[in-house]
Amino acid sequence: MRFLASLIFFALLPSYAQVYSPMTGSERAKYYVQDTFRLRSFLLSGPAVAGMRTWQDRPEEWDRTWGGFGKRYAARVAVNTISNSTEIGLGAIWKEDPRYFPKATGKLSSRIGEAARQAVLSRYANGNYYFGAAKAAGIVAGSFTQKLYMPDSVISNRDCTIRIGGYYAGRLVSNLFVEFRPQIRKIFRRK
Predict the structure, then answer these.
(1) E strand or H helix that includes residue 116
(2) 121 SS3 class
(3) What is the mean pLDDT of the chain?
(4) What's the pTM value of the predicted model, to 2 decimals?
(5) How far is the C-alpha of 29 from the C-alpha of 48, rounded, in Å?
């Protein structure tokens, strides 16, 4: 009878409470390479961000030229590499998992809330969520190391703090994309 009660209990648990397996070293290395050097980043979001900043002429020292676009694009690649390296490296030491774990079912507001929650929190080796310290360190490192190579007009502490907020917003958007990817694919397959 206990077995049946346990089986029913686990069958009724929400999908986000599934059994968790911490990342192995090889899984972490594969994740790092895929997340840092994925085509979507190089061919879609990288050019989009560099294009938007070129259009805004930010930083203005880099002009609205193809050369300026190239500098902005290279700066974005550098920031992603620094941020991901810091997050993955410290995450390995602190047993913090950088992956997003979709809820995949439930009310829209609940799923959006989960995406927002995991933009700030990370899963640790015990399966519980806590403040994403390695995630935060990566975001801060990516923002403040830009002081080393960006023009003076965009390296104030205020600029760095604004970028940190932007990086967290980017995490939220990325999490939402992963959360709703199946539904997005269905929409585009119908047409």
Answers:
(1) helix 108-120
(2) strand
(3) 89
(4) 0.82
(5) 27
pLDDT tens digit sequence for 14-26? 444 468 999 999 9
Kind and range of the H or E run holding 77: helix 66-94
What is the C-alpha to C-alpha distance for residues 124 and 131, in angstroms, rounded to an integer? 10
Residue 34 structure tokens: 């895929």
Q: What residue type is 7 in one-letter code?
A: L
Output the CA–CA distances (angstroms, integers) from residue 179 to 111, 123, 186, in the order listed: 7, 16, 13
- 76 by DSSP, 3-state: which? helix
Residue 59 reports pLDDT greater than 90: yes
- CB environment 36-60: b (16+ within 10 A), e (fewer): beeeebeeebbbebbeebbeeebbe
Helix axes 157-190, 133-144, angle to 10 degrees: 120
